Amino acid sequence: MHHFDNIPPVPLTLEGASMLHQMLRVRWPEWRALTATRREEILAQAAQALTNMEGQGSAAFSLLGHKGDLMLVHFRQNFDQLGEVQRTLRHLALWDFMEQTTSYLSVVELGLYESTAKVYGSLAERGVEPHTPEWDAEIEDNLKRQRQAMHPRLFPEMPPHPYICFYPMDRRRGEHQNWYQVPLAERQRMMGDHGAIGRRYAGAVKQIITGSIGFDDWEWGVDLFAEDPLVFKRLIYEMRFDEVSAIYAQFGAFYIGQRTPVAELGKLLRL
After folding, report:
1. Distance (Å, rounded) from C-alpha 159 to C-alpha 98?
2. Which of 38, 97, 110, 252 could cross-link with 168 by S-S, CB 3.0 to 4.6 Å?
3. Distance in angstroms (rounded) separating the CA atoms of residues 6 and 268
4. Of the listed 104, 167, 201, 248, which one is catalytic?
5. Residues β-bridged to residue 167
6. Considering the entire predicted model, what is its pTM?
7. CA–CA distance from 63 to each of 14, 68, 90, 181, 212 (Å)?
């Protein structure tokens, strides 16, 4: 592949569904202070709204550990629809008895390292200068084809698995190691090796990567869905030995939840 010194270091990405995680803690003293009748009224109203949301790409997960009681996960077409989700929830009486411990906003992202190297290389071979109209048009044409081919991955259905593992992550920009100063070809090689591990677990884990640069405090969010939560440990542990993770990965808080159909939400909240 012919290299020009001015080839952009930024890999191409495809963006899809907008995604919001909401981690919630029940205000138990206030909730217990209600009459049983009032609690049932509140749950009935919430169940109706949340059942409607479930049909649009939302799911509830009962969290294990101290970081919250419940995690709501929403896939939508865009941020406008996520705004509607937030407004609907705020109008529920149940929301008065919930406290958001944290949230996470991102968009489904597919990184195109291999495709980037090919299209940048092809343009460089033909002497097309970066960021000229010809360059931009060919890049957009390539992205358009990829968007069509990858549409099911960019706008996924909510996986049906009973367990979820969510965590945010960054690429290190530390004193000695800085991912963003590694040449594109080297990053491509490492990401290829990294992706190979994930693909080996494809039958046991459904993985959805979202980008959050400019949207939230970390750079990516990772959602893993599985039948057996031990698979999360095995996959992430194996990836820790992978070069890109061992040298460049920084991880945020981990959230483990059990899928809770809206129809069963009352079990979590009934005293």
Report:
1. 25
2. 252
3. 57
4. 167
5. 222
6. 0.91
7. 31, 6, 21, 38, 22
